[in-house]
Amino acid sequence: MKFLPTLGLAGCCVLLHACVLAPGQHMKTGELNDKESATGARYQLVPITPKLLAMDKASAVPAGLDPALTAYKPADYHIGPGDSLYITVWEHPELTSPAGSQQQTAANGRLVRSDGTLFYPYVGQVKAAGMTIEQLRTEISNRLTKYIAKPQVDISIVNFASQRVTLGGAFTSTAPQNITVTPLTLAQAVGTAGVNATVADLSNVVLRRDNQEYHLDLDTLSHTLQGGQDIYLKGGDNIYLPYNDNHEVYVLGEVVRPEAISFKTRNLSLTQALGRTGGLNQTSARGKSVYVIRGVEDMEKAPATIYQLDNTSPSAYAVAAQFPVEPGDVIYVGPAGITRWNRFISQLLPLSGLISNAANAQYNLDRDRQL
Q1: Quick one: signal sequence residues (predicted)?
Q2: Domain 78-159: assigned CATH number
Q3: 346: exposed, middle or buried (C-beta count within 10 Å: 0-12, 13-18, 19+)?
Q4: Which among 93, 131, 201, 325 counts the fewest CB atoms within 10 Å?
Q5: Does residue 88 contact residue 133 with C-beta atoms inside 8 Å?
Q6: Tell me: the pLDDT tens digits for 281-311?
Q7: Are 85 and 155 in contact (CB under 8 A)?
Q8: Residue 235: which of 187, 193, 186, 179 has the closest Cα?
């Protein structure tokens, strides 16, 4: 039974080898720069520096609105099926309020039928759909001249129903909004619908119009001089506000609360991402081991990029505050050297205790045999 010391030494060596090679314990940056891993994937290591931020800012293409959106300007409102009109003929209440003057205005309204026509006494059927209010007023006045001398006609729309904007996604209310005689802008429609701030992704709002899709960053637009006021809506438009469940970064390693972080705007800085997880673990994090891992769709054609921040530098906080992370990024904070040693000891102790107990048991057994 003399093999126990040898077993103990061998066990410690095996455990030491396992701890040193345990994945995730430390990222050897010298082996990442433009080299291939065991799986054939290629990586490049890029330090996060003020020079890198300046280069990215210079190469960034400012996002602009599609000219087709800003060029559209609403014309006069055109009457359509479903609209309800209140037609006034002055000094002729029998025509203006056939249901009685005590009734509400809507009860005396004239509905534009699905075929675009409406009926009015002494006028008959009128093809109202497609006309402006002024055009319909003129048409009714001309027809009434056969029965009324110099008729004075006024028309107002008491219910707009023919032109609507539909909404979907992460709005508080997705009820359709009507186009009226007052032009409706994108900002007004979004404000009326309300944004569910906890689940919405404001960086990629989709406006569908005439079989085309326009992708808009509402957060960026809100910081411009005009914002969404420049985008007028028209009947048939659809606004979709996506959810941010796929708009995430993943913070792992030596932070207070490793987790996936959703964000509703395009811009989330490295400082903000780390801050939401409680920041670096002061007892275990290694200042130089803050990495942002950014993959690509086809790693055979282009290398993935691993950005490294030296958090021990005094300027690191200012640099991290200006470095934007992107959806799908993995932020990894590596452990300090003492943390790796403590982990090694914590993994070694259970095995060494087992060896010690076995050795003591064998010693007691041998002594009992000698008695």
Answers
A1: 1-18
A2: 3.30.1950.10
A3: exposed
A4: 93
A5: no
A6: 887 777 678 888 887 666 667 777 889 888 7
A7: yes
A8: 179
